[in-house]
Amino acid sequence: MTAVDLPAAAATAAASAPNSAPRSRPGRVPKKVKRGIVVVVLLIFSAGFLYPFAWLLAASLKTRGQVFNNSLAPNPIRWQNYADIWRELPLGHWMFTSIVIASLAAIFVAVSSSLVAWGFAHFRFPLRNQLFTLVLATMMLPAAVTMVPTYLIWKHLGALGTWLPLFAGNLFGSAFYIFLQRQFFLGLPRDLFEAARVDGASYWRTFWQIVMPLSRPSFIIVLLFEFQASWNNLQAALIYLNTGSIEQFTAPLGIAYAMTKYSPTNGGHADYQFVMVAALLVTIPMLVLFSFGQRYFIEGVATTGRKG
Predict the structure, then answer these.
(1) What is the pLDDT of residue 307?
(2) Domain presence at residue 5
(3) Buried b (16+ CB within 10 A) or exposed e, 96-107
(4) What is the C-alpha to C-alpha distance for residues 44 and 176, in angstroms, rounded to an integer?
(5) Residue 232 near residue 240 (C-beta atoms within 8 A)
(6) Residue 19 has pLDDT above 80, yes or no
(7) Percent of the chain scored above 90 by pLDDT?
(8) Which of these, 14, 20, 108, 162, has the minimum number of CB atoms within 10 Å of its CB?
(9) Residue 308: pLDDT band by 50, 70, 90 thresholds?
């Protein structure tokens, strides 16, 4: 074969060779298109969830007459609202009160629920399943059913007007958190605890030095859930904090008070921009808390209920 015939031979071989590139099946959507559709849908839902927060941020930077104009671009931007809020409302006292109460409530319910859950998960005793079912049945009771009896108990104890009713009830655990912790404990290797008992460790030492370190994700989940629930609990604060000093209010109760204070029907000047600033600042601790606990949150949700 001469040099002149080489290009012709190469072209013939290329034409006769099978096409190695993968052919897409007719009617099949490419992966890039599917991924693009998923991204667009997620962006739409994310924008929908973030719009209320964006509206709140914009309203907090507006003047009095522009708060409810539904514009996300304040004009002019009034940063002075964030400085005036500390003069208008005792927001610092409200947030401090909420942080203390929510922290105590979260710690108490996390520890007490873990102890009860460990008892149901580890020990074998008569009527264990029936008793656990009875504990879960308490979740079926509406809060309105137990509201009046609980109020009468705290009134008899002389705790009305104090912080005690807002967190002390968590010393007896929560049925939901007991269930959550028990499911996590069932996934822990039982042989590890039996080995600790053989080595002379007491049940109490086994719980604190073995069980608790292994169940850190679920424990932090309980802390996050209860901190958020106590932080946003307006009803309990409204019922029990019947004190004359507004500085003793929690953050949700304080914001409700601010809504009433600035209402034109009550002689206020409709300075709702201060209410928006207060509401925005109250959400910041929860955002910070969730950002730090997100890893444990995802890990705990992924492993809770996986029985080994």
Answers:
(1) 47
(2) no
(3) ebbbebbbbbbb
(4) 33
(5) no
(6) no
(7) 31
(8) 20
(9) very low
Residue numbers of the domain that contains 59: 31-78
Residues 71 and 217 in one domain: no
148: number of Cβ within 10 Å:
9
Q: Is residue 8 part of a domain?
A: no
Backbone angles phi, psi at 207, to 5 degrees: -65, -50
Q: CA–CA separation, 88 vs 80, rounded Å?
A: 12
Mean pLDDT value across the chain: 83
Asked if 97 and 250 count as a contact pair (C-beta separation under 8 A), the reply is yes
Q: Which single residue is written with the structure tokens 């007007």?
A: 161
Q: Give the helix ranges, DSSP H, for the chain.
A: 6-16, 31-60, 80-88, 91-122, 128-137, 143-156, 164-167, 175-186, 190-198, 203-206, 212-214, 216-231, 234-240, 251-261, 272-303
Q: What share of the chain is helix, strand, coil (3-state, %, to 5)?
A: 75, 0, 25
Amino acid sitting at position 35: R
Q: Say how many domains are in the chain.
A: 2
Q: Mind listing the pLDDT tens digit for each residue in 203-233?
A: 888 888 888 888 888 898 899 999 999 999 9
Same domain as 288, residue 151: yes
Whether 279 is in a domain gets the answer yes
Nearest to 223 by CA among 297, 165, 284: 297
Average pLDDT score over residue span 31-43 = 88
| Core vs surface per residue 242-280: b (16+ CB within 10 A) or e | eeeebebbbbbbbbbbbeebbeeeeeeeebbbbbbbbbb
